[in-house]
Write a structure and sequence with these properties.
It is a single chain. This protein has twelve helices and 15 strands. By secondary structure, the protein is α/β, with parallel strands linked by helices. It has two domains: about 140 residues, NAD(P)-binding Rossmann-like Domain (Rossmann fold, 3-Layer(aba) Sandwich); about 220 residues, 2-Layer Sandwich (Dihydrodipicolinate Reductase, domain 2). The strands form two sheets. It has a nine-stranded mixed beta sheet. A hairpin with a 2-residue loop joins strand 13 and strand 14. Helix 4 runs parallel beside helix 5, helix 5 packs antiparallel against helix 12 and helix 6 runs parallel beside helix 8. The radius of gyration is 20 Å and the shape is globular. The protein binds nicotinamide-adenine-dinucleotide. Nicotinamide-adenine-dinucleotide binds next to helix 1.
Length: about 400
C-alpha cells in the first residue's frame, strides 16, 4: 500500500473533553482512522463503541498492546502524559500527546528520548498554534511580505475556571490552573510566529476566587532573542468573554450566544464536588451534551491576536485574517472545514507516512513547557526570568 493511500490506525487514550473532540477528526481525516480507545470510565467507553464499532479497554496498556493500533492520541490528564508516551514508544506506537507535553522538563526529555530510541514520531498537539489563521500568519512572518515582525498582542477572556474540573486542575502544584492548561496555547502561538528562542519572560497572575484556588488570570511579556515582543493576557473568570470581539464566534468556530457568568452560576448551583466530577465526565466527556457540535462555520481561534509588522498590523478574524497595511485593509478568508485539529493530523501523517519533519515535535513542545515554567517562576519571584 502506498504512503498516500495508507491510513494510520489510531487508539484514543482518554475519552474526556480532548479525546472526545479529536475522535471524529481521526475518523474523518483521509489518512487516519479510529481503531480503538481506552478510558477508565465505562459509560464513555460504551458511547464510543456504539459510535465507532471498535473495541475499547479500561486500561492504557491493554490499548497500546493491541497490534491493530499504529498510533495513539494521548488525551489523559497532564500528569499521565510521560507514563503513557513512554509506554506507547516502547510498544512501537507513534504518538500525538495533548498539551502540555508534560509537567517537568525531565519528563519532556524522557519522552523525546524514548521516541528517538524506539524510532517513533512524537508530536504535541492540539494547541491553537495549528489553527490555519496562525499558519497563514506564520507564512507572512517568514516571507517578510510586510517587513519584520515586531510585536504580538494576544487576549483571551473565557469561562475556563468554572467549567467542571477535576480536583488536581485547581491545584497549581499538580499542574492545575491556566498556566499549564490555557496560557500554553498563547505561548505556542507566540513561539511559532516569533521563530526565535525565547530570551526572557515577566509574568503576573492572580487567584481571584478562593473557591477555585489556582491562577485564573495572567498577563505576561515574552522577549524573544530576535527582538519580537509578545504580550499575553488570559482570564478564565467568566465575566467578560472576548468572543464578543470575535463576532460571537466561539473558539471552535461555531456561532454562540452571549451568556456572561452562566458557567459560574451553573457550577455554583451544583450541590457538591461529586456532582461536579459526574458532570466533568458525563456532560463534557465523549458523547456528552456539552460537546455535541454543529457544523463549523468559521475559523477556530484562541481569542484576539494582533501582529505588528513594519508595514502592517494583522488581526485574526472569524473568517481568517484582516490586514491593515499602508494602503488600507484587505482580508484573507480561509475555508471553515479546515481547522487546527485537521492540521495536527496533516502534520503528524506527513511526518509518519512521508518522513517530513514536524514543526510541533517533542523539542517544540518542550520549549512551550519550559516557557510555562519560566512564567510560573517569574510570578513567584516577581521579576523577569531569563531562559537558558
Ligand atoms: N487541545 C485542546 O483544545 C484541549 C482541550 C481539552 C483538554 N486538553 C488536554 O487534554 C488532556 C486531557 O484533558 P481533558 O480535559 O480531556 O480531561 P478529562 O478529564 O475530560 O479526560 C481525561 C480522560 O482520561 C481518562 N483517564 C485518566 N487516566 C487514565 C488511564 N490511566 N487510562 C485510561 N484512561 C484514563 C479519564 O477517565 C477521563 O475520561 C489534558 O492534558 C488537557 O490539557 C486539550
Amino acid at each position: 500500500m502506498s504512503a498516500q493511500s495508507r491510513r494510520l490506525r489510531f487508539g484514543v487514550l482518554g475519552l474526556g473533553i480532548a479525546g472526545g473532540i479529536m475522535a471524529p477528526y481521526l475518523a474523518q481525516h483521509p489518512r487516519t482512522c479510529v481503531a480503538g480507545a481506552a478510558d477508565r470510565h465505562a459509560g464513555l467507553r460504551q458511547r464510543f463503541e456504539q459510535d465507532f464499532g471498535v473495541p475499547t479497554d479500561d486500561d492504557a496498556a491493554a490499548l497500546l498492546r493491541r497490534p491493530e493500533i499504529d498510533a495513539v492520541y494521548i488525551a489523559t490528564p497532564h500528569q499521565f502524559h510521560r507514563e503513557h508516551a513512554l509506554m506507547a514508544a516502547e510498544l512501537g506506537k507513534h504518538v500525538i500527546v495533548e498539551k502540555p507535553m508534560a509537567l517537568t522538563l525531565a519528563d519532556c526529555d524522557a519522552m523525546i528520548e524514548a521516541a528517538q530510541r524506539h524510532g517513533v514520531t512524537l508530536i504535541v498537539g492540539h494547541t491553537n498554534s495549528f489553527d490555519p489563521a496562525i499558519g497563514r500568519l506564520h507564512q507572512l512572518a517568514v516571507s517578510g511580505e510586510f517587513g519584520r515582525l515586531a510585536m504580538l498582542l494576544m487576549w483571551n477572556y473565557t469561562d475556563f475556571l468554572y467549567r467542571p474540573r477535576r480536583p488536581e486542575e485547581l491545584d497549581t502544584r499538580q499542574g492545575g490552573g491556566i498556566l499549564f492548561n490555557q496560557v500554553p496555547h498563547q505561548i505556542d502561538i507566540a513561539r511559532l510566529l516569533a521563530g526565535a528562542p525565547l530570551r526572557s519572560v515577566r509574568a503576573m497572575t492572580a487567584t481571584l476566587d478562593p473557591r477555585r484556588p489556582t491562577e485564573g488570570c495572567c498577563t505576561a511579556l515574552l522577549d524573544f532573542s530576535n527582538g519580537v515582543a509578545a504580550s499575553l493576557t488570559y482570564s478564565g473568570y467568566d465575566h467578560f468573554d472576548s468572543d464578543e470581539l470575535h463576532g460571537w464566534i466561539s473558539s471552535i468556530g461555531r456561532p454562540k450566544q452571549p451568556r456572561h457568568g452562566a458557567t459560574r452560576r451553573s457550577l455554583l448551583a451544583l450541590p457538591d464536588g461529586a456532582h461536579e466530577q459526574r458532570q466533568r465526565s458525563e456532560r463534557y466527556g465523549y458523547g456528552g451534551d456539552a460537546y455535541k457540535l454543529g457544523p463549523r462555520t468559521h475559523q477556530s481561534h484562541f481569542g484576539t491576536l494582533i501582529a505588528t509588522f513594519e508595514r502592517a498590523d494583522v488581526r485574526t478574524t472569524p473568517a481568517g485574517l484582516a490586514i491593515y497595511h499602508d494602503d488600507g485593509v484587505s482580508e484573507i478568508s480561509l475555508p471553515p472545514e479546515v481547522d487546527g485539529r485537521v492540521a495536527v493530523l496533516d502534520e503528524f501523517c506527513a511526518a509518519v507516512l512521508d518522513g517530513r519533519p514536524a514543526v510541533h515535535d517533542g523539542e517544540f513542545g518542550r520549549g512551550t513547557v519550559e516557557a510555562s515554567l519560566a512564567l510560573l517562576d517569574s510570578v513567584r519571584q516577581r521579576r523577569e526570568v531569563f531562559l537558558r
